[in-house]
Amino acid sequence: MKKPSFAVVGCGRLGTALGKHLLNAGYPLAGLTSKSLSSAKHTAEIIGTNKYSEVPRDITRSADVVFITTPDGIIGDACKTLAENDGFKNGAVVLHCSGAHPSTILSSAEKSGAFIGSMHPLQSFASKDIEGNPFQGITVSVEGTDNAVTIAEKMAVDLGATCLTIPTEAKTLYHAAAVTACNYLVTLFDLAFKLIEKAGISSDQAFKVLKPLIDGTISNIEKVGIPEALTGPIARGDTETVQRHMTAIISQTPGLLPLYKTLGFYTVDIAAAKGTLTEFAVQELRKILKITV
Ligand SMILES: NC(=O)c1ccc[n+]([C@@H]2O[C@H](COP(=O)([O-])OP(=O)(O)OC[C@H]3O[C@@H](n4cnc5c(N)ncnc54)[C@H](OP(=O)(O)O)[C@@H]3O)[C@@H](O)[C@H]2O)c1
Fold first, then answer.
1. Are residues 218 and 160 in the same domain?
2. 8-54 pLDDT, tens digit each
3. CA triplet 242, 277, 246: central angle to 5 degrees?
4. What distance in angstroms lies between residue 184's CA and the mean position of ligand 1's atoms?
5. Does residue 121 have its Cβ closer than 6 Å to ligand 1?
6. Of 78, 93, 219, 268, which sits most exposed with the smallest number of CB within 10 A?
7. Range of the domain at 205
8. How many Cβ atoms from other residues are within 10 Å of residue 183's Cβ?
């Protein structure tokens, strides 16, 4: 089956990666456009094409699939401007790549006869020019109208990703999960690094020292899942050790106590689900870890 042509509106980090790797996967490029011509030109140089323009309509009008890869807050308006200027051919598929927003923010394109969807890669694209294929082996979540989903799924698979279809109304919680697993993991490590630094281990060493523990925990979650992977004082019902942690944190770095307590409080639920705690230990741990305002 002939592969559909595609256009990229918004030549930033993701737009550039999509352009490069869809082209590599054999999808014909209709063209690139961005807010500034210099960005479109830079992306064109990276992916080896001369198909770019500062007039978005000139690029998008001929495309079977249009990716709007502007920052999230601009997607709806960029789409509306294109729709109002006859920027989509009838039956085109218009996709955005935001994890936070549903495909319905592209409703202006749907009104002008296009099929709308979103295609969100669960990957971090830190720069425009990434070595290798950042889509290889990752999950791309897709939602939207049937025609858009079918094409987005095919493109995701051709990029080397695994496709996950989610209901449009589930998009916000799905994104909250991704933010927790990615961004808040950074916050969690930051807490651990700050505590270990207070114990006299330098910030240079902190990651090296903790990494085998982190790797082992991720491996355990993969092998036995949650709650079985939970170990440590809360899983053992060792209230005294948890209390000693809190006393040390209060004396040396009190600002970190609320986060430590909040994480501990929810960890008690996991330990209770594992079945290793007496009801008395559950109540005692909840009592000392509860945040009181
Ligand atoms: N980066 C990631 O890790 C990642 C991961 C998953 C999903 N996403 C999603 O991908 C989308 C793009 O994110 P990004 O990180 O690639 O952003 P980015 O690097 O900031 O790039 C956004 C691009 O959009 C262009 N732009 C801004 N306003 C525009 C307009 N009105 N018309 C046309 N182009 C416009 C900017 O143009 P100029 O350069 O021309 O000024 C910029 O090059 C977002 O929806 C984001 O949620 C990103």
1. no
2. 999 999 999 999 999 999 999 999 999 999 999 999 999 999 999 99
3. 10
4. 22
5. yes
6. 219
7. 173-289
8. 11
